[in-house]
Amino acid sequence: MTKQYTVAILGATGAVGTRMIEQLEQSTIPVGEIHLLASKRSVGKKLKFNGQEVAVEEAVPDSFNGVDLVLASAGGDISARLLPEAVKRGAVCVDNTSHFRMNDNVPLVVPEVNVDALENHHGIIADPNCSTIQMVVALEPIRKQFGLKQVIVSTYQAAGGAGQSAINELYREAQEKLDGKPMQAEILPVKGDKKHYPLAFNLLPQIDVFEEADYTHEEWKMIRETKKIMLGDKFAKDIKVTATCVRVPVPIGHGETVYFETAQEPTPAEIKQVLATAPGVVVQDDPSQQLYPQPVTAEGKRDTFVGRIRADVENPGSYHMWVVADNLLKGAAWNAVQIAQELVKRDLVRVPEGSAELFN
Amino acid sequence: MTKQYTVAILGATGAVGTRMIEQLEQSTIPVGEIHLLASKRSVGKKLKFNGQEVAVEEAVPDSFNGVDLVLASAGGDISARLLPEAVKRGAVCVDNTSHFRMNDNVPLVVPEVNVDALENHHGIIADPNCSTIQMVVALEPIRKQFGLKQVIVSTYQAAGGAGQSAINELYREAQEKLDGKPMQAEILPVKGDKKHYPLAFNLLPQIDVFEEADYTHEEWKMIRETKKIMLGDKFAKDIKVTATCVRVPVPIGHGETVYFETAQEPTPAEIKQVLATAPGVVVQDDPSQQLYPQPVTAEGKRDTFVGRIRADVENPGSYHMWVVADNLLKGAAWNAVQIAQELVKRDLVRVPEGSAELFN
C-alpha cells in the first residue's frame, strides 16, 4: 500500500492557504489526514478538503504531533515561532513566508529551477517570493542555454500579494471611486507602515518597507532570492540583478518587464524556442494575433506566461520579455504544493537528525 | 497695446482639447479671438472660454483664415490634412498628434529640454508623445550634469492616453466586474486593431500597433522621439534608448520606471539635488515618509514628479527613478500651450516664407 501522508496547512483560511488546499487536492500527494490550522479567531470555521468538511483548529506546537508535511502561509512571525516546533516533532515544512528564505540551512526552491536543492533539506524548505518565482521560471531556461549576465526587472504586482484583505480593499476603493466618494485606504501599500494610499485607479511604487539603499524589502527579495535560487549563494555575483517593484490595481496576477543580458547573442526566435519547451512556461507571443500574457488570462493557472520577447535593437545580447503568472498559485500555493510533491516523489518527507537544533 | 492672438483649437471637444482650452485660459498668451474646431458631429456644442460660451465649428481649411496660432489634437489623419492648410493661411500650428513628429522640417519640443529648436520652425511644431515628454523632462537635467549613455524604460500608462472614450471604457468595465458581469472591451488596447481586451483590473502590454522588431509604435515613439528631443537627429546614437510600454487600469497619470546609465558616477543624492532645481520637475522622494509620485496625486498638475531615485548597487553609474505626470497636461495639453507661450514670448508666431511648400 502507498504511504499516506498526514498534512497540515498553517494559515488555512487565507488567500494562499485556501489555494494550498485546492492545489493539494489536485496534486499527486496521497493525503491520509489533513489538519487545517489557523489563528484562534478562525477556530470553528469549516473548510472542505476532497469534499469532506474539515474544522479549522488553532495552530499550537502540538498541532504538529504526527504530521508528516506542513504547508505554511500564516505570516513570517508565525512561521518563525511554529515551524521549529513542527520540525522538532518530525514534520517537514514548506514555508511560504519570507522568514527562513535566506537562512543557509534552508533550501529556497522553485522546482523548475533548483529541485535538487531539496536533497539536503533540514526540515524546512522555503517557497520564494511570488514575483521572484515567475521571473526565475522564465529566466532559468535562458540562463542554461545562453548564459545570463544581468537582469533589470520592473514589476506590476497585484493586490493579492498582500492577501485577500488587500484584494477586498481594491474592490471597495474602486466602487467608492465609481460612486464619486473618496477612497478609504487602510491596508496598502504596507499594512504595518505609517501611511496608506488607495490602489484603485492608482499606482503604488512601494511593496513592503523601505530598507538599505532606498530599496524596498520586496526589491531586495527579488535581488537576493533570484541569486540564491539560480546560482546558490556561492555564485551570487555571477548574475547582476536589480529591481523596481510597483503595486498595480489588479486583484490577481503579477506582470513583469524583464530586461536581461545573456552571455551569448541568440536571436529572439532562439529564445522563444528554448522557452517553448521549458517546464512550467507557456509562450504567448504573437504580435500579429495580439497575443501576449495578461493577468486576466493567467488567473487560476499554474503556468508562467511569457511574451513580448524581443531584442534591444541597440544592445546586442540584451532582450526584453513580459512575464505574467497567478501570484497566488505559481507565486505561492502551487509552488509550495509542487515542492511537497517532489519531496514525496523523492522520498524526502523525513527530518534528518540534528535538524531541530539548527532552528533553535 | 499688446498684440492679441487669434487662436484655434482643433479637436476642441476631446480629452486633450478641453484641457488645451483650460491651459490656454491659464496661460500668459493674450488671446483675442478663439475658434473651437471639431468634426461635423460636434457642431452646435458649446464650450466655455474665459467664462464666455463659444460654439464649436466644423474644422475645414478656411477655418484657419485669420488665425495666428493653432493647437491641434484631433488625430493624426486630421492634422495631416488640415495643418498644411493652416500653414498656407499663415497660422503657426502646435500639433499634439504623432503625424509630423519625425519630420525633419518640424521641431519636436519639450520647452524644459530643447526650447531653442522653436527658433527654426516652419509653421508646424510637434508636441511629443505623452510618455516621452515626462521622461525627457526628468532625464535632461541628469544628461546635462552627468552625461547620459543609456535608458531602459518600462511604462505604466493610463487609459487617458487613448482618449476620453478609453477612460469611460475603463470605468464601465470596472463597474461590470464589480457587478459580477463580464467586461465588454470595445476600444483598448488599440481602437483600430483586431482584438479588444478589458483593461479594468488587468494589464495590457500593447500600446498602439506592432511594428518592426516586435516593438509597438508607442515603444518606437519613445525611442525615436527621446533621441530627437534630447540630441537632435545628428547625435541620435549617443544615447541608447529602449522601452516596454504597458497600459494599466489608471484613468489619468502615466508612471515610468526609468533605469539609466550616466557617463559620470554621481551619488543618488547628487542626482536628487540636480532634479530638485530642474525646471518642471518636482522631486517626491522620501522613503522615511513613504513619499513618492502617484497618479492620483499628479492628476491635474503641470509638473513631472520624480521619486524612488537610487543606484543600481551592482552597476556603478546606473540608477533607477520613478516618474509620474498627468499625461493629458504635461503629456499633451500643457506642453502644447507651453510651446505656444514660448512662441509668443519669442515673437515667433509667424510662418516663414516657403514653409507651406514643405508640407505639400
UniProtKB/TrEMBL annotation, chains A, B:
Pfam families: Semialdhyde_dh, Semialdhyde_dhC
Ligand binding (NADP(+)): T13, G14, A15, V16, R41, S42, P182, N327
InterPro entries: Asp_semialdehyde_DH (IPR012080), Asp_semialdehyde_DH_beta (IPR005986), NAD(P)-bd_dom_sf (IPR036291), Semialdehyde_DH_NAD-bd (IPR000534), Semialdhyde_DH_dimer_dom (IPR012280)
This protein's record includes keyword Oxidoreductase: yes
SUPFAM superfamilies: Glyceraldehyde-3-phosphate dehydrogenase-like, C-terminal domain (SSF55347), NAD(P)-binding Rossmann-fold domains (SSF51735)
Transmembrane segments: none
Residues that hold phosphate according to the record: R101
Pathway: Amino-acid biosynthesis; L-methionine biosynthesis via de novo pathway; L-homoserine from L-aspartate: step 2/3; Amino-acid biosynthesis; L-threonine biosynthesis; L-threonine from L-aspartate: step 2/5; Amino-acid biosynthesis; L-lysine biosynthesis via DAP pathway; (S)-tetrahydrodipicolinate from L-aspartate: step 2/4
Subunit comment: Homodimer.
Entry's family note: Belongs to the aspartate-semialdehyde dehydrogenase family.
Function: Catalyzes the NADPH-dependent formation of L-aspartate-semialdehyde (L-ASA) by the reductive dephosphorylation of L-aspartyl-4-phosphate.
Descriptive protein name: Aspartate-semialdehyde dehydrogenase
Gene: asd
